[in-house]
Design brief:
The chain is of the alpha+beta class and 247 residues long. Helix content is 29%, strand content 19%. A hairpin with a 4-residue loop joins strand 3 (109-112) and strand 4.
Length: 247
Amino acid sequence: MPLALNINPRKYLQALFSACQNVANEASASSSEQKEFNLYNEHIDNLHQFSGDYDAVIICLGGKASSLPELTNKLPLRTCRGVIAEFRLPSDTVEKYGSRSPSILSDAWLAFQGPRTVSVGSTWQWKSDNHDPSVSNEEARSAMEELLPKASAVYPGISKWDYVRARAGIRAMPPLTANGSLPLLGCLNDVIGERSNSAFWLVGGLGARGLLYHGLAGKLTAKAVISSDENMIPSEFTCWKAVKASR
């Protein structure tokens, strides 16, 4: 894919937040109604802490969504831990990865960040509940044994690169359906089963393709929340609730 880009998630989210702030400021300047867009960094133990404070609460916690007591054992998410290995080309190596050469998506993906830095991923450890981003020496060694042969098959030159470090994360994988693995969207009030002054919504199960889905999932959910109508979301994204309720 000649026009494909590598996205740094943290920098991307920071830029997205700034863009939303700009939209709010522009809207406030052009109308008499003041609009605010704020970030509050708080620890939340349960959804009751939000009750009455907001008209709507959208839960976007990825693999940790089920850690909320109100959602424990109520979401059909499959957790999967993945390890990513980072490599760097030695400074005394004349040959470097060309600036116009692509990143590679195969059995192992290689995300090049400049001519001398690459991330290689990722492993799949199903049903893992290990949310620790740090990786032990044993886990790193096991990941290297799995990833390097796959990476070498599409880029033999990886053998010249030095291993730097490994990091890990948890994917929240949605269930497999006839339509594929689709994100889990929808209102959660009937799932939680408790009356509240707030409406609770879910955006979850984006899995390993969250960057592809997050824009669509966010847009559909925003329309549904504003209109208080879950039917604004296509049934393919909300049918998980009927399946869950029938079990």
